Amino acid sequence: MNTTGKSNSTTVQASKEVQEIHRRMLRRQRFNRVMTYIVGILIALWILVPIFFIASMALTTPATVRAYPKGILPFIPFSLDTMNFFLSSEGIVPGIINSVIVAVITLLLSTLIAAPAGYAISRYIFRGRDVFRLSILAVRAFPIVVLAIPLAVVFIQLGIFDSIYSLALMHTALTLPTTILVIGSVFASIPYELEEAAMIFGCTPVQAFRYVVLPLVLPGIAASAIFTFVMSWNEVFAAIILTIQNRTLPAQVLNTLSQSSEPYQFAGGFFMLVPSLIFIFLIRRYLFNMWGQITK
Amino acid sequence: MKKRNWAPYLLILPSLVYLTLFFAWPMVRGLTLAVWDEDASLSLHAEAQQDSPVAGRLPQGTQIEILDQQGNFVPPEDLEEGNLLTEVWFQISGEDADGQTVEGWAPESRIRVREEAEDGTPVVGSVRTKLGSGADPQTSIYAEPNENSEVVGKLEARTRIEILDLATLEVWYLISGEEDGQTVEGWAQSRYIQVFGDETRGRIDRGNTGQLTTGFIEKMVNDRFFMPALRTTLLLMVIIIPIQFVLAITMALVIQAGLKGNTIFLYIFAIPLGVSDLAVGILWFSIFTHHGFLNTILQGLGFIDSPVTYLSADTRHWILVAVWLAEVWRATSIVMVIVVSGLQAISQEVLEAAEVFGATLWQRIRHVILPLLRPSLQVALILRTILAIQVFAVVIALGGGDVVTVLANETYRQYSDFRNPNVAAAYAGFILLLSMISAVIYLRTIRTQEEAAE
């Protein structure tokens, strides 16, 4: 009796200790969790607060933009006057149209040329595959600044300077490597066995691609196309070198930056930022496809 | 996987062709601009003809004497080219003093046009009177539109003539100049020569023979903005990249922790990935400008009594701080995404094992996560360094590009403001060189570390 009671009490004691350790671990885990949340929220604020600042400046009256000190809720009074002022400034609407044309051409060209190459590097093992991938990576990491000057000079010699189409050609060269790698990773995520199965069931390779692979990869390819659009929409150095009369939006804003008023600048910054916010939201699932690829 | 066949080559062909046409080829052509002077020297011909042998060369800018001149055939498309001097010759026919019909060529300066056709072509004219006492009163008519050709006859002044044809000729000069103490003499086209007022002297305006030169690189290095631009670019690189990696790894760990609302964090952290550098520059400008948010907040908290000016020529350090924050804000996301995908590749068991054995967070990061992340970090580091060397629009938006300048800005200025694509190409080549050197250094360092670890 006695012995059993003793052993019982040790068991109880031991389990108490275990419980204590368990509790401590749980507490530590919860503490870690809370700390992680705090760190995450702080970083999120670090990113969001400047965006809130510029948004509040762009969506109010020019008078409020110039006011000092700014209010605690600078949004008030809400007004589209500043945006209107920016959009009605000289060269802005043509700049937006140019930017969209350039970005759409870049998106189409880049995707059309990159899709077969992306398919090839994910589906075939061929001599020179690694060399091809490596050179694509090298081109991807290449400084834009270095390419813009040579291309401008060549375009002048060819007589296609200061045209948004030549800028689109340049943007395609810049975005092509990324697009190839991203589309490659999109294809790589679809098992080849699916295609094979379709062919066993009597599809031709083209049919297998058309009816089995294509529907599966389309969202990924769309995401990569959107990213290509964003890259072209944002690009400013090549745009300002290659165009003089037919400026794109960023080139136009940069060119007039030093002579313009603060409402113009803030509205311009906000206007360029909004598409990025939307597009990054649309393709957030694919971001790792895009950049994860290049480390593999 | 399929077995090897021709299909993949066909599939990668378009991209290869495209990158060759719009990447490799312009690159090579463009970068040679930095070391190749197209107008370095002018070839002088023994006779006033394109196909006559080259008698010597004179470098661009040489002062020359003009000994003689002569008109020569010029292809019509060359006439559009600037600053070439032309003379016009008429093919005429008229009667000489003996009543003989003379048909031949005379320079425009000797003929007065009397009648023109509807489209402006001269059809009838008369021989001009020669001024000066000692001169031959008659005008020589040549077999060809060239003063060195055979004289087919002579016409008296005021003879009425018919104008049959006209020829536009480019003037060639017989010039002589000195190079390295040696006199070089020969014929050259007027388009290359700038003639001074009295038409006996001039200088070689541009050349037609290219030559390797270090002149553009020297010009870049001696440019007064070169050293400041290089220093600022390197300084920004050094202060931006370390903090960026600490922040990016922190972000990645937050996302990897699998909190509720993970996807929201991921989206927010990734936002700057899609924002243009110009927009980011403007974003931070709204904070640092005189009547901006930083002053508003500081004044609201009572730290300052009146707004402080941050972004001016006298406050260079504040511009650097603003650029630093803006770049950290903008370009940390890409590092974060690379690190997160690297983390996802690390097996969860390894991380859990470290945790079970009681490793603290710092120990786990230092001894497990960082070593396993090395390939990802290496890629991110190379990518970020190359991007940092190109920093451009943020600096323009925050500092205007004069007080604080960077290499990319100087490239742009040389090209656009100073219209000097050669020096701009030298800058571009320099940026490329810096990028390559830093990539090699990273790869080397990391390899040496690995060897040391083994």
Oligomeric category: heterodimer
Category by helix and strand content of chain A: mainly alpha
Specify the structural class of chain B.
alpha+beta
**CATH topology term of the largest domain in chain A:** MetI-like fold
Largest interface: A-B, 97 and 104 residues
* CA radius of gyration of chain B: 36 Å
Q: How big is the Rg of chain A?
A: 28 Å
Main β-sheet of chain A: number of strands, strand sense, barrel status? none
N-to-C series of helices and strands of chain B: HEEEEEEEEEEEEEEHHHHHHHHHHH
Number of structural domains of chain A = 2
Keywords for this entry:
heterodimer, A: 296 residues, mainly alpha, MetI-like fold, 2 domains, 13 helices, 0% strand, disordered N terminus, B: 454 residues, alpha+beta, 9-stranded antiparallel beta sheet, 3-stranded antiparallel beta sheet, 12 helices, 14 strands, 47% helix, elongated
